[in-house]
Each structure stands twice: as C-alpha cells, then as structure tokens.
Amino acid sequence: MSQLIRGVILAGGSGTRLWPLSRQQLPKQFLNINGVDSMLSATISRSSPLISREDAWVVTGDTHASGEAFSELDGLNLILEPCGRNTAPAIAIAAALFQDLTNEDPVMVVLPADHIISKQAAFQRCLKKAVSAAEDGRLVTFGIVPNHPETGFGYVQTQASDGDVMPVLRFVEKPNLENAQKMLDDGNYFWNSGMFVWKSSTILEEMREHLPEVWELLDAMRKRWNGGEPWQEVIRTTFDQMPNISIDYGIMEKSQRVSLVAADIGWSDVGSWDAVHEMAPHDEHGNDISGNVLAIDCKGSLLRSEKSLIAAVGLEDVIAVETPDAILLCKAGESQRVKDIVDELKLGEGKYHFEHVTVRRPWGSYTILEGGATGYTIKRIEVNPGAKLSLQSHQHRSEHWVVVKGTATVTCGDLVKVVAKNGSAYIPIGEVHRLENKGKMPLQLIEVQVGDYLDEDDIERFEDTYGRAR
C-alpha cells in the first residue's frame, strides 16, 4: 500500500460521564481506563504500522498542551484548538494543513482518542479496506456490528451487500428500544463509531459543497498561512469564528459518496461507567473491583478506589468510584446521568468538575493538602529532576516554601540560592521568582500560600520552558 496515510486523532472533549476520574483539565482520553497506556497512546499504537507516530496528528484543546496532559502530548504533532467547535472544523483544518504544508493529498484516518478496541488484527484489516475505498474517492465510516439492541448509539443503514465495503443509505439518530431491536433483526444496520477514512481532497470537496460557512473561513485561513503567517497563530486567532458542527451532521448525512466497512473489532466508546464495567474483567460474582476495596457478598458491581478504603457489603448492581476528593455512587444502568452531576458542579464554587487534588504540570505536579480556607492554601509541590517552573510573580499572595526532599534552586528577585532539605524560602507578594530542581532526584516541598486571592490565574509569567509566557 503506497498511498500516503496520515492519522487525525480527535482528543477534545471533557469526558463528563466518567467523572470523578475524568475532569475538565485531564479528561478520559489522557487516562488509563482499562490497560497499561492512556487511551490516546493506545489509539496511536493500534494504528501502527499503517500510520507511523510521525504521521499522526492530534487535535486537542490548547490548554492541554501545557497543562495536565503535557506528558501525553509532548513530542506529537498537535493542532491546538482555542475553543471547542465540534468535529467538522477540526477535520477541515487538518485536511487543509496536510495539503498546504506538504503539497500532498494523503488518505486521512480520523479516529477518536477515547475508544477501546480489543481485536487489533481485525481493526488493521478493516483499516486497509477503508483506505482502499478512500483512494477511490469514497467517504468511509466504520460501522460496528451490533450484538444487542443499543439505545445509546446512532445507527447507519447500508444497502444489502456481500462485499467488504457497502454503500450507506442513511444515518439514524439514537433509537428507542423497540426500534433498536428492529434494526438489530434487520441485519443492515450498524452502530455509528465516529471513525472515518477519506482523502484530504475528497473531504475538502464535500466541505465546499455542504458546509460553505466552514469552507469560506477555512479558505481565508489558508491564504494567511500560505502567505507566511504561522499556521498555529492563524488557528489561535480565527478558530472561534468557526461554526459548532459535527462531521456527521455537516457532511456524512448529506454526501452521496459515503460507504461503510463492517467492523467486528471489539469496540467500545467508553462513554460511561456502565461501558467500563461491561468491558472489564469480572470476578465470579460479576464484579469489577480495583484499588483499596473490601467487598463481601456483592454482585454485578463496579467498585474502584484510588486512595480511601471502600468497604461494601451486600451491594448489587452498584457503581462506586472513589478519588481523593470525590466519591460517585450510582445505580448500574444509570451512569449516563453522571453528566448531570457535572453540570450541577459547574454551577457551584468548587473545582470538583475541573481538576483533581493532584494536578500534573509539565515540570511535575502539585497536590492541594488544604484548600478553600479563608486566606491560605497548603500544597505539596514535586519538581522532576532537571525541571523548572516559569519565572513568575503573583499580585495577591505570598508564598512560604519548606523543602522536605531533594535540593531546590530558588530565584527570588535578584537573589539565587540553594535550599536543602529542612530549609525554607519566602516569596513576598509581587516578587519575581522561580523554583528549579537541578538535581538527579525529585524535589519535594510544602508550600503555604497566604493572600486575599489564591486562584491559579493570579500569575504573570516572564519566562517559561513550556511556552506559557505571554
């Protein structure tokens, strides 16, 4: 197969239905849900060798590239979105960049980053069939072979065919149970997976015909970056003008060039805790138990703990997920409604929807030991060997640092000093400062912030290794 192939990994979204494990700053696609690697890493790996890591491009929010997901994204080709606009604008920009940056017309394999596929060899076979059809100018979608009447997915109807690639008749919205059973019995309906394959020129032609509002803005953006402006800056300053529209609604439901590859690949979109429970290994009583859990006479339950002990007696069909700052309790079968919990949390003053107690950063992490109190916050800060924080200042708080492990190099104004274990440093309000670990071992310190405003946005960066200075 000589055709140039590039992957487009869609890694946006906040994964609200997998709260409290998935948070806005570190959503499910960057987490290890049921395996060794994160879902993003697994998505890239399963596409190899057809798509190399160098030919995979990840579309994600710009805050993730320098935030908690930095370690997952470092070294990858990134298309950074300053705001969410669904899938059609992201795919349009990727297709245009492939043509304009390389003067090529590759086949694009578009894959969500938050799927799990257990049958790798079958996936590779389906991928090759889809690429072959895409070379002939088709828009190819992967249709998952259904094994039960599912009301949580959209469906795709195809013409009856004995071939590997079937013409698509129509897309169907999520059905009720009765209609889902009828479609299962029919045999020509498949679950809509959200995985696509097409040539960049083909999808751009369809954009021009069916999504003129996307095409016109994209054309203006291309003129700017082809005229010499950095394409990343063009996206940063223009992307919010794009309409919010999915590729399914904008193109796939309208195009006459859509085909489907039937895919029996052990697929799950991991859209809820019920889905996680379904695909996980179970004990003899149908339980999925992990972490610090003691369960007696429990059946059909998902029990997961990251820190505190979950002691459960006589539970049946229950979902319980513990993180250091939140616990989810849910009846099995109701986990789609976890999104409603997150919506309620967003209305409050807390950060339970936004981030975990331990927040990862490119340089290491910090853990909030005590927060929310009037006038002070206590954190444990860990800095990786050879890493350093930005040169920064705060207008509303002072900081007191006590080193408990390793050796810190502290910049405070014009003074640079080395602080060993059991030593301390004081950073006054407004003082320019930096923390650095020049050693070969992790640096750990306790930070006490004191001030009248303690949120993370009270920061001005003057220098930053990770591109966050403005």
TrEMBL record:
Key words, A-Z: GTP-binding, Nucleotide-binding, Nucleotidyltransferase, Transferase
Domain Nucleotidyl transferase: 7-284
GO biological process, alphabetically ordered: GDP-mannose biosynthetic process; polysaccharide biosynthetic process
Ranges for domain Mannose-6-phosphate isomerase type II C-terminal: 353-464
Its EC number(s): 2.7.7.13
InterPro entries xrefs: GMPP_N, Man1P_GuaTrfase/Man6P_Isoase, Man6P_isomerase-2_C, ManC/GMP-like_b-helix, Mannose-6P_isomerase_type2, NTP_transferase_dom, Nucleotide-diphossugar_trans, RmlC-like_jellyroll
Pfam families: ManC_GMP_beta-helix, MannoseP_isomer, NTP_transferase
The organism's place on the tree of life at top rank: Bacteria
The reaction(s) this protein catalyses: alpha-D-mannose 1-phosphate + GTP + H(+) = GDP-alpha-D-mannose + diphosphate
Nucleotidyltransferase found in the keyword field: yes
MannoseP isomerase/GMP-like beta-helix domain sequence ranges: 291-345
GO molecular function, one term: mannose-1-phosphate guanylyltransferase (GTP) activity
UniProt keyword Transit peptide, yes or no: no
Family statement: Belongs to the mannose-6-phosphate isomerase type 2 family.
Name this polypeptide is given: mannose-1-phosphate guanylyltransferase
Organism: Mariprofundus micogutta
